[in-house]
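Much of our argument rests on the idea that a fold can be written as discrete symbols. Part of our work consisted of pairing the sequence of a single chain with a tokenised description of its backbone. The amino acid sequence and the backbone structure tokens for this protein are reproduced below.
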Amino acid sequence: MWLGAWLMALVPMAGAAPFEDSMAQRMLACTGCHGKDGRAVGAVYFPRIAGKPTGYLYNQLRNFRDGRRSYALMSGLLATLSDEYLQEIARYFSALDLPYPAPALPNLSPQVASVALALVEQGDPQRKLAACTTCHGAALTGVLPHVPGLLGLPRDYINAQLGAWKTGQRHAAGPDCMALVARALTIDEVSAVSAWLSSQPLPADTRAIAASRLQRSDTERPACGSAPELEGGSR
């Protein structure tokens, strides 16, 4: 009894955390998993969300809320939120222009790295498989306003998302271009690309580029319902 009373007496001395009613404070529910300021660090299954294009973040929030992506914690957090508030969340994290941590140390054989590099930069025209750079930009930093960058993400996260598209557990607005890409990749190719991307250094400018700056590609750019600015076809 005495110990309990002593602990209770300490509560008013410690004081409660100040209530700010700011987006930073409200978004603490997100940073518990995505890391401080949305900068996920380390070998985790949660992606970095700081600095991602606003349209991409908004699409993903809606996908979780509306059932196109399945993760109970995210779906529960977003179930009652309006489109307008999801836009506000997306704008908040997109505006966080923060440095990236050093990439993971590469752990790939030269042969596997060569396979990954070819898929990322050239794709496979015989399989009508677009290169990653066709939609995500030559520097892989993403394309405004809907296409995310692929660098600075944990290997396990990239691997899990490609696997989810491949097995139909993750969906996007149709036509679902990433589902087509993921299904065309073998399991070994998914593993190689995930490991290669997670180990690449980031360029000095990590911001997403405008769609008008996308370079011409030798592989056809698939039509993508979640990124209409890409317009489909090759450039």
In short: The chain has two domains: 24-94, 110-230. The CA atoms of residues 7 and 13 lie 10 Å apart.
